[in-house]
Amino acid sequence: MPKVYLIDVTNRDGVQTSRIGLAKLEKTIINMYLDEMGVFQSEFGFPFTHHETNYLNANLELVETGALSTLRLEGWARGIVKDVEISFKLVPKIKHLNLSISTSPLMWELKFAGKIADNEIIKSMTDAVDKAYALGAETVAVNAEDASRSDLDFLVKFGKAGKEHGAKRLRYCDTLGADSPNSIYERTKYLAESIKMDIELHCHNDLGMAVACSVEGARGIIEAGQDAYINTTINGVGERAGNADLLATILALKYAKGLGEKKLLPENIKLNKIWAFAKYASYAFGIPIPINQVGVGNNAFAHESGIHADGALKNRRNYELYDFEELGRGDPELVDSGRSITVGEYSGIKGFRNVYGKLEVEFKDDAEASKILELVRYANVHTQKPLTREELIFIAKHPDQAKKIMTVTP
């Protein structure tokens, strides 16, 4: 039975959004949350980009040590040999790549001034795939940018060429959010049937339908007998109007009519961390969670009108499709009501020990405490905001990787 897999692209598409960004430590904490949730893969960055190098290598070390126990880390590069060569030079242990190239005639004309032909597109892509495997890749996916405005017959040709060279998936990019749920269902089902290849869905939210298109595309792929891979981001961040929201996609797969009954949601997905994850991402990105955000907005389980409040109090199923406890909401949060000691770039050892004591983290001696304090000071400069509980614990548990993650050398 074909399956659905989730590939989160917050650390690639999310961070390239205009006006926002993440420190490398914050990107790492996002990977830690994705791992805890049971997400299949994180597109964790750009391996051909020098300022990402230490962060990428340190996160691959976290995989080797088991700190990231189930999450697969995959890098994004352009579908050209040069990018692949640089990627393996800078990040030699990378095993999974997604190689991207434009497949729509419109982009060939507007981006490349009509100076590139369809056969050149395919050759560039297949040469890059061959090079990736030659340098040690375990899996390569081929990414059809602007697939929703590309000719279907060319996408079949593109996908088959990738498959012949060992590509594991074709990523169908609705780059401008131009598809409807109906059109993407029909197009991806046709591609899956024609190429007999797993299809990955990358949907943008320009028309407000990224989640709807993602799940309907997945349904078409599954019905065609292939596995479907859905790209998501936490809180729906992404270029322009964003990408398919991770939580909304999971809930749609689990509860939407016509989808929930098919049991498409991966069995290992755990939702009890999503509330904390969404709040962390909101803090890290500096983007407030909208009041009506699916599952995690302040009004997601709020009732005011008389009929609704009465119905919800009698039985929550009257006006709530799923339980807030399932998302990790409802647990009491500790709030200091008096003196508050924080830790930052100018902290001393006594205040530092006080903060870590509240986190129930102990140090074997003063030398270890001083070492972690120094890293915490750097982390505060690195993120340019007060450190969170998750960040403080990560630094104490993985000081060597934390140091590497925060090291950016021009």
CATH class of the largest domain: Alpha Beta
Rg measurement, Å:
22 Å
Strand content: 5-15%
Count of alpha and pi helical runs: 16
Classified in CATH, the superfamily of the largest domain is Aldolase class I
Mean pLDDT: 92
**From the 3D coordinates, which CATH architecture of the largest domain would you assign?**
Alpha-Beta Barrel
Biggest beta sheet summary: 8 strands, parallel, barrel
Q: What does the overall shape look like?
A: globular
Q: How many β-strand stretches?
A: 8
CATH names the topology of the largest domain as TIM Barrel
Order of helices and strands: EHHEHEHEHHEHEHEHEHHHHHHH
Detail the poorly predicted runs: none
Number of domains: 3
- Spatial order of strands in the largest sheet: 1-2-3-4-5-6-7-8
Structural class: alpha/beta
Instruction: Kindly report how far apart the N and C termini lie.
Output: 49 Å
Helix content: 40-55%
InterPro entries: AIPM/Hcit_synth_CS (IPR002034), Aldolase_TIM (IPR013785), LeuA/HCS_post-cat (IPR054691), PYR_CT (IPR000891)
GO biological process, one term: carboxylic acid metabolic process
Domain Pyruvate carboxyltransferase: 4-275
GO molecular function: acyltransferase activity, acyl groups converted into alkyl on transfer
Description:
- With 410 residues, the protein is α/β, with parallel strands linked by helices.
- The protein folds into three domains: 4-269, Aldolase class I (TIM Barrel, Alpha-Beta Barrel), CATH 3.20.20.70; 275-327, Irregular (H-NS DNA Binding Protein); 349-403.
- It is built from 16 helices and eight strands.
- The chain has helices at residues 10-14, 24-37, 53-65, 81-90, 105-112, 118-134, 152-164, 181-195, 210-223, 246-255, 274-285, 306-314, 349-358, 366-383, 389-397, 399-405; strands spanning 4-8, 41-45, 72-78, 96-102, 139-145, 169-174, 198-203, 228-232.
- It has an eight-stranded parallel barrel with strand order 1-2-3-4-5-6-7-8, surrounded by eight helices.
- Helix 4 links the parallel strand 3 and strand 4 (96-102).
- Helix 6 runs parallel beside helix 7 (152-164).
- The longest helix is centred in the C-terminal third of the chain and has 18 residues, at 366-383.
- It starts with a strand and ends in a 5-residue tail after the last helix.
- The mean pLDDT is 92.
